[in-house]
Specification:
Layout: H1 6-19, E1 24-28, H2 31-42, E2 46-52, E3 59-64, E4 66-67, E5 71-72, E6 77-79, E7 88-89, E8 103-108, E9 111-114, H3 115-120, E10 125-131
Antiparallel strand pairs: 1-3, 2-3, 4-5, 6-10, 7-10, 8-9, 8-10
Length: about 130
Amino acid sequence: MSMTDPIADLLTRIRNALGAKHESLSIPRSKAKLAIVKILVDEGYIQGYDVDESGPQGSIQVHLKYIKDGVPAITGIQRVSRPGRRVYRNKDEIPKVLNGLGVTSMSTNRGVMTGASSEKNQVGGEVLCSIW
């Protein structure tokens, strides 16, 4: 079975693992997924990750983060741009998630970055997902 949207698959696996209160999850490795996972670590939504290079593709082991009483650090994670409907924004139209409380992940010509850093670097791009 071919995967049409690997980023949506990543977000769904994270959502499901948080719902099942897992400590960590494993996902197939790709540059785009690794960039999104790095953003989640930098913004404090997950504890960390390990990259396993073995096999043809390799995998990313994502270590989830819970606040007190098992409440997940991520309350919502949503795909914005999809293969069937791409969403692009220029540097002046970068969406804010919950008035700046959440994070937008953008794919720009300078790599995958948060909405805030793409505003700072004055670049627009494809809006990949929103995390809050």
